[in-house]
Write a structure and sequence with these properties.
By secondary structure, the chain is α+β, with helices and mostly antiparallel strands. The protein has helices at residues 9-20, 69-89, 95-98, 138-155, 173-186, 196-203, 211-217, 258-269, 287-301, 307-311, 313-334, 346-363, 365-373, 375-382, and strands at 27-33, 41-49, 52-60, 112-113, 119-124, 129-130, 224-226, 235-238, 244-247, 254-256.
């Protein structure tokens, strides 16, 4: 195809057949790789109808990561339908841009299964908006955090039944740590010798792992619907205004703790350095960005958060950053099976950057706790 010239003709024909399985008007024109996601294959598909070109996002779901993609798609169909209904009730004139919209197949299903058994879905493309890889300012951090908080609030009244767990124990810190220890013992790729310092740094913080699960077991922190992957680049920002438009990447929307969502926001947006930064001197939690995240998140989600959740906002950042460091190191030791890598030792570099961020949060723990609990302190810092 013109936009993906290295694809052989049979692959082009398969991609066209997949695209044409969906209820899209017009003639299929092209399909090209899109974005830089770690998990699914994502493509931008163009259809032409009456001289007008319309873009769609099409994704092949990774069955290795999501072994029951039908359940995943049931979650997404329910969540997006509920979002749209809420937006219409609120009278939003741009509701079609504020939530992902699935395009059904010609048979009326939410997904298509190709002859190879691969499951595909299609979304309407949200024009005039894009995601950012690193936070640009405190105002941007505030807006993104408010958008994720509002997303959680939209789903607080989602009718039953309980959503499927698309990846069981996804944010189970103890389970992630035990998986790391197991792969380190086996050392299948003979990589342990090059990352013992990172393994020791994670093990030294083992006491952090059970704090939130124990609070949930006591009933202090409730189960809610969480996004579970609140990276900065999972929010589309309007190209013209910079305003958050839509939360994307809903594959891990499922029952969980909203503190994990806020913690991942802190991990990805409290430091301007990317998560795979090799110059660790650039990796530092910045209090102004953290204050903006707290302020924005409470504006979006504060209406339903309990006191115990609010009290753990600062801790959540440390925990989730440590957990992601654990996952990156485990994947490095296992041979890079989960996260896509773009160079040798990429997952190890990601792990090191996350551990440096944990250290920065530890160095500024008292300041983070002050900012999470005192609106006046946030106001003084944000101006």
């Amino acid at each position: 195809m013109s936009s993906d010239p290295l694809r052989p003709a049979p692959a082009r024909a398969r991609l066209r057949a997949v695209a044409e399985a969906f209820a899209i008007a017009g003639r299929w024109a092209s399909s090209a790789p899109y974005g830089n996601g770690h998990i699914n294959e994502t493509r931008v598909v163009v259809f032409e109808d009456g001289g007008r070109a319309t873009r769609y996002i099409q994704q092949r779901i990774n069955r290795h990561v999501f072994p029951e993609p039908e359940k995943l798609m049931d979650n997404i169909a329910r969540v997006t339908a509920h979002q749209h209904a809420r937006l219409v009730r609120e009278g939003r004139p741009d509701a079609e841009r504020r939530a992902l919209a699935l395009v059904p197949t010609r048979a009326g299903a939410a997904f298509h299964v190709d002859p190879d058994g691969e499951l595909w879905r299609t979304y309407r493309f949200i024009e005039g908006a894009r995601s950012h890889e690193v936070v640009g300012s405190a105002s941007e951090a505030l807006a993104v955090a408010e958008a994720f908080g509002r997303f959680q609030a939209q789903l607080a009244d989602l009718p039953g039944p309980r959503l499927h767990e698309t990846i069981p124990r996804f944010h189970h810190a103890r389970g992630r740590f035990e998986a790391l220890l197991a792969v380190a013992r086996d050392d299948p790729e003979r990589r342990l010798a090059g990352c013992r310092a990172e393994l020791d740094a994670i093990a030294a913080r083992e006491e952090l792992l059970d704090r939130l699960p124990d609070a949930q077991a006591r009933g202090a922190i409730p189960e809610r619907i969480a996004h579970n992957d609140t990276k900065l680049n999972n929010v589309l920002l309007d190209d013209r205004t910079g305003e958050p438009v839509c939360i994307i990447d809903l594959d891990t929307v499922m029952p969980g703790l909203v503190l994990h969502d806020f913690g991942d926001l802190v991990r990805t947006a409290s430091s301007p350095a990317p998560e795979d930064e090799r110059d660790l001197a650039q990796v530092r939690m910045q209090p102004a960005l953290f204050a903006a995240l707290v302020e924005g998140y409470l504006r979006g989600a504060g209406s339903f958060l309990c006191g115990a959740e609010r009290a753990e906002l600062a801790f959540a950042g440390r925990l989730v950053t440590l957990m992601i460091a654990t996952r990156f190191l485990a994947d490095h030791l296992a041979g890079d099976r989960y996260f896509r890598i773009h160079r040798a030792d990429h997952n190890l570099e990601r792990c090191r950057a996350q551990l440096r961020l944990v250290e920065s949060m530890e160095e500024q723990r008292a300041r983070m706790e002050e900012l999470s609990g005192d609106p006046a302190a946030r106001a003084r810092l944000l101006g």
